[in-house]
Specification:
Length: 272
């Protein structure tokens, strides 16, 4: 049986607001891992948070984290970082707009100014949870640049002020060294230019010597689009937005009806 590389978004695909994968999802992944297929979570979360979620889904699962900026295969980590100029410009824009913005390293979250009091649980999950030990306040551009060699990606979240978020999006588009996407209407996810889940998939498939014709991905949000359209079998969750559903040829049930597990069983049948 040919080996497949299978990439799975986290929030809205593997877990809902409870952050707990279902028994059926975990069992299906374990079954097809045992059959020899390579599974990855593909998340915008920083590595430490993505690693925790990966182990919750299936111990030892490989990771694409930080929206493709970090990969961990069998314990080996590779990472991309922002340029100093990009960080300086992002800090200036976010500080001017007083926009809650977070930058991720492999081990913690750097946040600008004060943490907002109106953060939703979903927003908190998309950052790194609520453990204060993982957070470090940054109050100047100089303080942010001191961590430049560690910072892999970032996210701005503003659920209450759509105009502020739109202004930030416009400001970020002028920064040539970064790319932006969104996993939900209230956020802007930021990576170094040319870095995303799709480019990470190409890197890990080359490393594992798995052809793109033997790849599959599951997702629900716009930041999954490049990933879903790069693999051979891009699968939209039943709860995916209309843009995602229209972009791919394959669809499955929603997260509350074990969409990942249902498609895996349908696709592989009794091959395991």
């Amino acid at each position: 049986m040919s080996t497949y590389a299978i990439f799975m978004d986290v929030d809205g695909t593997l877990v809902d607001h409870t952050q707990i994968p279902t028994v059926a999802t975990k069992a299906a992944i374990a079954k097809y891992r045992q059959a020899g297929h390579q599974f990855f979570i593909a998340s915008g979360r920083p590595l430490f948070s993505a690693r925790e979620m990966a182990d919750r889904v299936s111990p030892g699962l490989n990771v694409i984290g930080a929206n493709g900026s970090v990969t961990q295969i069998d314990g080996t980590i590779d990472a991309c970082h922002f340029t100093a100029d990009a960080l300086s410009q992002m800090y200036a824009a976010s500080h001017r707009l007083q926009l809650p913005t977070y930058f991720f390293t492999q081990e913690r979250v750097l946040y600008l100014d004060a943490l907002p009091t109106h953060m939703t649980q979903d927003g908190s999950n998309r950052i790194a949870g609520q453990d204060p030990a993982h957070y470090l306040r940054i109050d100047s551009a100089e303080a942010l640049l001191a961590h430049q060699a560690e910072i892999t990606n970032g996210i701005a979240i503003e659920p209450l002020d759509a105009e502020k978020l739109a202004a930030a999006r416009a400001a970020y588009t002028t920064i040539t060294d970064i790319d932006t996407s969104s996993s939900a209407p209230d956020n802007i996810e930021i990576t170094a230019h040319g870095v995303n889940k799709a480019t990470a998939i190409r890197r890990v498939c080359a490393q594992l010597k798995i052809p793109l014709d033997h790849t599959m991905a599951f997702g629900d949000g716009n930041n999954d689009l490049q990933m879903l359209t790069t693999v051979r079998y891009g699968v939209a969750m039943g709860n995916a937005n209309a843009t995602v559903k229209a972009a791919v040829d394959y669809h499955t049930r929603d997260i509350h009806h074990d969409g990942v597990a249902a498609f895996l069983h349908q696709f592989f049948g009794d091959q395991a």
